[in-house]
Design brief:
With 232 residues, the protein is of the alpha/beta class. It has a single domain, classed as Spore Coat Polysaccharide Biosynthesis Protein SpsA, Chain A (Alpha-Beta Complex), CATH 3.90.550. 34% of the residues lie in helices and 25% in strands. It is built from seven helices and eleven strands. The protein has helices at residues 32-42, 58-67, 84-94, 117-129, 171-183, 192-196, 217-231; strands at residues 3-8, 26-27, 30-31, 46-53, 74-79, 104-107, 132-138, 145-147, 150-153, 161-170, 202-206. The strands form three sheets. Strands 5-4-1-6-10-7-11 form a seven-stranded mixed β-sheet, sandwiched between helices. The chain binds cytidine-5'-triphosphate and magnesium ion. Cytidine-5'-triphosphate (CTP) binds next to α3. The record marks 157, 213 as: Positions MEP for the nucleophilic attack. This is 2-C-methyl-D-erythritol 4-phosphate cytidylyltransferase. Belongs to the IspD/TarI cytidylyltransferase family. IspD subfamily. The record marks 15, 22 as: Transition state stabilizer. Pathway: Isoprenoid biosynthesis; isopentenyl diphosphate biosynthesis via DXP pathway; isopentenyl diphosphate from 1-deoxy-D-xylulose 5-phosphate: step 2/6.
């Protein structure tokens, strides 16, 4: 049973507000996306990588990231869609004929460069034994549900987990869940949700607070610090 990585990297990085797409911002001289892909390139588990990129950025990504950093496991650079879910679906469709039904797909945001081999291996193991697995960390803060500026609920903190990636599934399971959501025009905020709505269990794999998604400018400050710590 092979393991494939599917890396959605076709967003616009609007919340970062940088002049270039956030995934090409440099961390110690290396683009964030290249750092993310390198983790999968190095992993002995991973047989191939599919990256999803905005159509007009594909040549730039091929030259400046995939070729520049010798990412030989990248099998295909797939054009993305308007929403992350559409980008992932495009990637899953591009895997047809390459990934077998029981192969594991690790869906991982292109802007989470601090994912570790340990997380990849625990997520893969959990995906083999369950319908799906989601890497997540316990919420540190109390979370409030708010409507029109007024708190309507305070869910018990012990029940709250913050979703990260990778989210790991057998290929046939996640492909079917995405196709159903697409046909029903259901838009979820992550991949796990598309299984949850079908009543299929998704297991939590305990992640790492450092496996953060680089979203806003202050995340770059944190990312520099995490990188320094790693390099020590
Ligand atoms: N993504 C994607 N296709 C989209 C939107 C997002 O592949 N249409 C990817 C992003 O490139 C990123 C990941 O999904 O790697 C997580 O999304 P997010 O952090 O929201 O990135 P952006 O959508 O680029 O940022 P923003 O929402 O601030 O515009
Ligand atoms: Mg987004």
């Amino acid at each position: 049973m092979a393991v494939f990585a599917l890396i959605p990297a076709a967003g616009m990085g609007k919340r970062m507000g940088a002049s270039i797409n956030k995934q090409y911002l440099l961390l110690d001289g290396v683009p964030i996306l290249a750092r993310t892909l390198e983790v999968f390139q190095r992993s002995p588990l991973v047989g191939g990588i599919f990256v999803v990129i905005p159509q007009d950025e594909i040549p730039f990504c091929r030259e400046q990231v995939v070729e520049q950093y010798g990412l030989s496991k990248v099998r295909s650079i797939v054009p993305g869609g308007a929403e992350r879910q559409q980008s992932v679906l495009n990637g899953l469709r591009a895997m047809e004929g390459v990934a077998a039904d029981d192969d594991v797909v690790l869906i991982h945001d292109g802007v989470r460069p601090f994912v570790s081999e340990d997380i990849l291996s625990r997520a893969t193991a959990a995906a083999r034994e369950n319908d799906g697995a989601l890497v997540a960390v316990p919420a540190k803060d109390t979370v409030k549900v708010v409507e029109n500026g007024v708190i309507t609920a305070t869910p018990p903190r012990e029940t709250l987990w913050l979703a990260q990636t990778p989210q790991a599934f057998r290929y046939c399971v996640i492909r079917a869940a995405h196709e159903i959501a697409d046909a029903e025009r259901f838009l979820g905020t992550d991949d796990s949700m598309l299984l949850e709505r079908l009543g299929r269990p998704v297991r939590i794999v305990v992640g790492d607070y450092r496996n953060a998604k680089i979203t806003t400018p202050e995340d770059m400050v944190l990312a520099e610090a995490f990188l320094k710590e790693k390099q020590q």
